Amino acid sequence: MLHIGCHLSPSAGLARMAENAVSIGADTFQFFARNPRGSKAKAIDPADAAAMASRLRENGFAPVLVHAPYTLNPCSADPKVVEFAHMAMADDLNRLALMGVDLYNLHPGSHVGQGTDVGVEKTAALLNALLTESFSGVVLLETMAGQGSEIGGTFEQIRAIIDRVERKDRLGVCLDTCHVFAAGYDIAADPDAVLTEFDRVIGLERLRYVHLNDSMFGCGNHKDRHAAIGAGMIGCEGIRRIVKHPALRSLPFCLETPHESLAEYAEEIALVRRLADED
Ligand SMILES: [Zn+2]
Ligand SMILES: [Zn+2]
User: Fold this and answer.
1) pLDDT digits (tens, 9 = 90+) for 74-103
2) Handedness of CA 150, 68, 61, 260 (dihedral sign)
3) Which of 157, 181, 212, 258 is spaced 20 to 30 Å from 228 by Cα?
């Protein structure tokens, strides 16, 4: 069976978030471990974390994912921003262990005019500083749309970061369908060609998670604008090809689509499950 869920909020507690996931037919999800725009992080209640872990286990969940805050940019030209990235991510990785979660999703960052090579070096420096001997989780580098000066808009850039990191065994990749499509990889029309290219450049064994989003803009537009499933340029047919692809279908999928309510996500999860069951 397909593993699918959506981005959820932990504001009412970790166990409650897991219950919300179950209530909408999800068996994976993603969340922020701190305010996505700021540096504030609530203390983790061990009983709440343990309750989440048992809900996930009882309900046969696929791995869940913590997403790094959007403000985290390890490639910034501003040393204060880089320092914040190191501080916030170090704290997040400690919290990951306390929550019993293994996967942490990171945007490689934006080089803001310093050039791709500098960006790649700075992201690798962050990972080399934080992926210490004691870290037992896996950091996923997210494929990006290549909007502005974003690093990660090509598979080669993701590979270049991995090549520079010492603890490669702690690294994976999260493929975002909207982002790769916007970056110019036509995953809607020919997922096989895109995944063959992914395998050639990065290696499919690194692929651990999929962000399943439709795209408001066309392939190669470099615009990171997510659309609801079937409401964008990837379309239901493209999404069907993606979720049925043999290299992807056993991975966890997370929706990051623009909806306000759990009811809307429940409907979209049901829609994707139907698409995955179609011939
Ligand atoms: Zn992301
Ligand atoms: Zn994403």
Assistant:
1) 999 999 999 999 999 999 999 999 999 999
2) negative
3) 157
- Active-site entry in 7, 34, 67, 206: 67
Q: How deeply is 102 buried, as exposed, middle or buried, from its count of CB atoms within 10 A (0-12, 13-18, 19+)?
A: middle
- DSSP character at residue 25: T
Active site residue 197: no
- For residue 10, how far is the Cα from the chain centroid? 17
**Tokens 């064994």 map to which residue?**
205
Residue carrying the six token digits 């791709």: 116
- What domains appear along the chain, each with residue ranges and CATH number? 3-277 (3.20.20.150)
Residues 173 and 135 sit within 8 Å (Cβ to Cβ): no
Structure confidence by residue, pLDDT tens digits, 165-189: 999 999 999 999 999 999 999 999 9
- Is 142 a known active-site residue? yes
Question: In the annotation, is 86 catalytic?
Answer: no
Per-residue pLDDT tens digits for 188-232: 999 999 999 999 999 999 999 999 999 999 999 999 999 999 999
pTM (2 decimals)?
Answer: 0.97
Query: What is the Å distance from ligand 2's center to 142 Cα?
Result: 7
